[in-house]
Amino acid sequence: MAGDLLHNPPGIDRPEPVLAPDQTYATIDAKISSIVLQRPLHAGWMAATAFAFALVCMLMLAITYLLLRGIGIWGVDIPVAWGFAIANFVWWIGIGHAGTLISAILLLLNQKWRTSINRFAEAMTLFAVACAGLFPLMHLGRPWDFMWLIPYPNSMWLWPQWRSPLVWDFFAVSTYLTVSLLFWYQGLIPDAAALRDHATKPIPHTFFGILSLGWRGSAHHWKYFETSYWLLAALATPLVVSVHSIVSMDFAVAVVPGWHSTIFPPYFVAGAIFSGFAMVLTLAIPLRKFYGLEDFVTLQHLENMGKVILVTSLIVAYGYFEETLMSWYSSDKFDWSMMVDRAFGHYSFAYWLLIFCNVVVPQTLWWRKARTSIAWLFALSLIVQLGMWTERVVIVVQSLHRDFMPSAWHDYYPTVWDWITLIGTLGLFSFLFLLFIRSLPMISIHEVQKLSHERDEEGAGKREEGRETAPARAGS
Amino acid sequence: MEHAQRATSLPRLYGLLAEFDSPERLLEAARQARQAGYRRMDAYTPFPIEGLAEVVGFRFNLLPWLVLAGGIAGACGGYFMQWFSAAVNYPINVGGRPLNSWPSFVPITFELGVLCASLTALIGMATLCGLPRPYHPVFNSPIFSLETKGKFFLCVEATDPQFEIRQTWQFLVRYGAVGVFEVEHWKR
After folding, report:
1. Chain B residues 43-82 with CB within 8 Å of chain A
2. How far is CA A409 from the centre of its chain?
3. What DSSP state is assigned to residue A476?
4. CA A206, chain centre distance (Å)
């Protein structure tokens, strides 16, 4: 049949379902809520959490020593005054972008595959932004004065400098954190109600009862819920683009060669989505395996994320190309010598490493075999994160280390405290995430149930074509 | 004292809770109930069902307007704060640039607009839903906790002028309820 051929052309694989066909409302609910409520503390989870907590303690130690001694314990100096701290900040905040992208933009675009990954991607956003926020605070040198960034009636009668991108940055990041938290919490309300109804022990019952605000799933509630959810998505969409654009202006507004470029905002946003999706893959692949969530996070999800990574990799590659082209085309000798130094100078290994990780390796995703190979996607996600982190370090460090005056030239070497702080935030991120998967539903129950309803409706629509559904009458 | 008086003067019955197997049956029953003249009712579902709210009496959605107002207030307030501090309260001449340098005020204006609109969205949603509200009579029904397991409920409230326990009961069963339960105001 022609119609059949149109829907099922030979030689083209049909997409995998985004939800396993045998899942019903009750099984969805039981599976997701049982991860939080019934399962006893798993030895693997305990070990991972203990390890992550050890790293958190290490971070505490590093911060304490930093507060005692000042940022001289890091490798930063003039001219490389920004070093690892700012590179880590930009990297973490970039990772935080995928959560809102998945939850907001894909919601507005009506992409069904977002449904089972949005909750933990949003949690990932919150924790990544929390890790990111630590770095500029620590880098202030006097972190206890950070509130001077906030416009409040202080005893010095001073206001923040509104024309500075660093102040914009403060507003952008704190707004982003707040809005992500609101969005995440709102989606959590009906699920907290579900867990409240399941909980048999008093402590979880009270905890989820408070969290759910007394949600009872009334039709009026859902109407307001959906309105608010869509509005938040519509508000978060321009916000997510604005955050990394503003972060990039911290650089682009300065006169430093290698920073002063108009490509920076879109190039930073693409890089953010690129690294963020890589992080979602890094988290999703072990989660679906260890918690048996293959029915919810299917191969289709992983493949779609692979496609997003490929596209953003191409945008990032275009950014690298454009940057190089413009520094040659501008005939600005400072800019061009920076570019030559980037490719062949002291830090050239980092530059070629980032090109390899961010441009060359993701090209494998053109092949479906690579996009559907779970092991390769996991390895690739780690490679991409390494590449994006290296990119941030190159932008921050390499651009600064050759100043306009050769007498000021100075190479930057991270100290052991730089590394401890970076690894410590990785530990903090993992620790928060592990607590999250054990205490809150990591997949949105009501959204997956709705997805299953829509799927049933589609199926029923196909079966019942041309037949009128009789009104259901039972029990009379 | 007042509370005790109210407690004794209120009727025992809050309403009848009818359980359905599928959202389609619930929607159909709610439509029939509306046609039959029932007005005070609400439906309880584990996920949003399109068109259900209107059938059980949802009329005007104020929320988008609140969010719009919140966003405008946030953006205007944000711009005002920057203009007032940079041009009036603490003017600093930076390289002869205008004091009211509006292009550099745009990012913070935008951020504060989004922030206030988002806060209005969540707080407005909770307020319009009447949340937080830890107690509600439907929670007294032991069957209600099955909601998230994929059961769909229609509650016809006893305050409805048409409500008559036997007739309403039969009505609900006729339109596909797999079970009908009394909901009481207080847990016994």
Report:
1. 43-49, 52-53, 55-56, 58, 61, 63-64, 67, 71, 81-82
2. 35
3. -
4. 31
- Written as six digits, the tokens of A134 are 């630590």
For residues A436 and A112, the answer to whether their CB atoms sit within 8 Å is no
Of A25, A26, A476, the CB nearest to B174: A476
Sorted by where each starts, the structural domains of chain B and their CATH numbers stand as 2-59+133-184 (3.30.70), 63-129 (no CATH)
Q: How far is CA A36 from the centre of its chain?
A: 23
Range with lowest mean pLDDT among A10-19, A145-154, A228-237, A256-265: A10-19
Assigned token pair, A72: 């001289």
Alpha carbon distances (Å) from B99 to A60, A92, A159, B79, B84: 43, 35, 14, 13, 10
Helix (H, G, I), strand (E, B) or coil at A163: coil
Q: Is B133 touching A (CB cutoff 8 A)? A: yes
Per-residue pLDDT at A246 exceeds 60: yes
Q: At what angle do helices A416-439 and A43-69 cross, to 10 degrees?
A: 140
- A215: nearest CB among B97, B119, B131: B131
CB-based contact A449:B47 (threshold 8 Å): yes
Encoded tokens for A314:
């191409």
pTM over 0.80: yes
- DSSP E strand boundaries for A67-160: none
Closest C-alpha to A449, from B49, B19, B44, B30? B49
Residue from A256, A272, A252, A253 nearest A264 by CA: A252
Q: For each of the domains in chain A, give its residue range(s) and CATH number, in order of start.
A: 23-448 (1.20.1630.10)
Cα three-residue angle A340-A419-A351, rounded to 5 degrees: 20
pLDDT, one tens digit per residue, over A347-390 is 999 999 999 999 999 999 999 999 999 999 999 999 999 999 99
**Average pLDDT of chain B to the nearest whole number:** 84
Give the position of tokens 């202030």. Answer: A140
Q: Is B134 helix (H, G, I), strand (E, B) or coil?
A: coil
- Per-residue pLDDT tens for A323-337? 999 999 999 889 999
Identify the CA nearest to A243 among candidates A190, A303, A170: A170
Per-residue pLDDT at A426 exceeds 90:
yes
**To the nearest whole angstrom, how far is the Cα of A215 from the nearest Cα of chain B?**
7
User: Within a 10 A sphere around the Cβ of B100, how many other Cβ atoms?
Assistant: 13
* Residue A308 half-sphere exposure toward CB, CA atoms < 13 A: 27
What is the signed CA dihedral for A365, A366, A368, A369, rounded to 10 degrees? -60
> Count of alpha carbons within 13 Å of A11, Cβ hemisphere only?
0
User: How many Cβ pairs within 8 Å bridge chains A and B?
Assistant: 204
Mutation for A interface: B92, B125, B128, most A CBs within 10 A? B125
Which residue from B28, B45, B178 is facing A217, i.e. has the nearest CB?
B45
Output the CA–CA distances (angstroms, integers) from residue A80 to A153, A201, A268, A343, A392, in the order listed: 34, 55, 21, 18, 14
* CB–CB contact B28 A221 (8 Å): no
A231, A447, A450: best to mutate for the B interface, most B CBs within 10 A:
A231
ipTM higher than the 0.95 cut: no
